[in-house]
Specification:
This protein has helices at about 1-20, 30-45, 50-60, 60-65, 70-85, 90-115, and strands at about 45, 50. The protein has about 120 residues and is mainly α. Strand 1 (about 45) and strand 2 (about 50) form a beta hairpin. Helix 1 crosses helix 2, helix 2 (about 30-45) crosses helix 5 and helix 5 runs antiparallel to helix 6. The radius of gyration is 16 Å and the shape is globular.
Length: about 120
């Protein structure tokens, strides 16, 4: 049953992104940024001792943790955890500590793709 929910929730997030591109004529960059901000805002809503997006991940599993909205969730979690440990400077360091692997992978794989494929334009 968890696989079904992961498929439905992950698919729904992707459908929302596609609607933003097709219907609202948003660029992919604007769509991606909007979904990251939406994930961060949903995580900022308290639900018990966690944010609402964390509860969403517990329910939907990979359907909520894989899409781009989870990146916003990771940013908020990193900032808040480091804020508790190191004060206001932890907001900045926490964001990079939690998301550095994803950012590094994006840079490395983008560079490798640029080496393999000839850019157009």
């Amino acid at each position: 049953m968890q696989m079904l929910w992961a498929f439905l929730i992950g698919g729904a997030i992707c459908v929302i992104g596609q609607i933003m591109i097709d219907v609202f004529r948003m660029t992919p960059a604007h769509t991606m940024s909007s979904l990251v901000v939406a994930g961060a805002l949903v995580e900022a809503i308290p639900y018990g001792n966690k944010g609402l997006y964390d509860k969403f991940i517990e329910f939907a599993g990979a359907g909520a943790s894989v899409p781009i909205t989870s990146f916003g969730n990771a940013l908020v979690n990193g900032a808040l955890s480091e804020l508790k440990d190191h004060g206001p400077i932890g907001i900045i360091t926490g964001i990079f500590q939690v998301t550095s692997a994803g950012i590094s992978a994006a840079i490395i794989f983008s560079f490798l793709a640029a080496l393999v494929f000839k850019p157009q334009g």
